[in-house]
Design goal:
Order of helices and strands: EEEEEEE
CATH class: Mainly Beta
Strand order of the largest sheet: 3-2-5-6
CATH architecture: Sandwich
Distance between the termini: 41 Å
CATH topology: Immunoglobulin-like
Largest sheet: 4 strands, antiparallel
Structural class: mainly beta
CATH superfamily: Carboxypeptidase-like, regulatory domain
Mean pLDDT: 88
Number of strands: 7
Helix content: under 10%
Number of helices: 0
Number of domains: 1
Length: 80
Amino acid sequence: MHAQTAQVTGRIASNDSDSAVAGASVAVKGTKTGTIANDNGNFTITAASGATLVISAIGYTTQEIPVNDQTNIPGRYKLI
């Protein structure tokens, strides 16, 4: 039996200014699945409902966000 997967979208923005973090890396923890945020900070990735997304960008703290059956992951990420 396989975990159910879905398209998960989100926007990566700076916590202090809400400006987009273009080029941020978004990966499904423990897999080779990953993507990069576009110029507006938006991303789409396929992940299982119980997966964890690992979001990283130069100059920002790496964050792990549980999907928890969500299909839209809002995000603001703290500067290092």
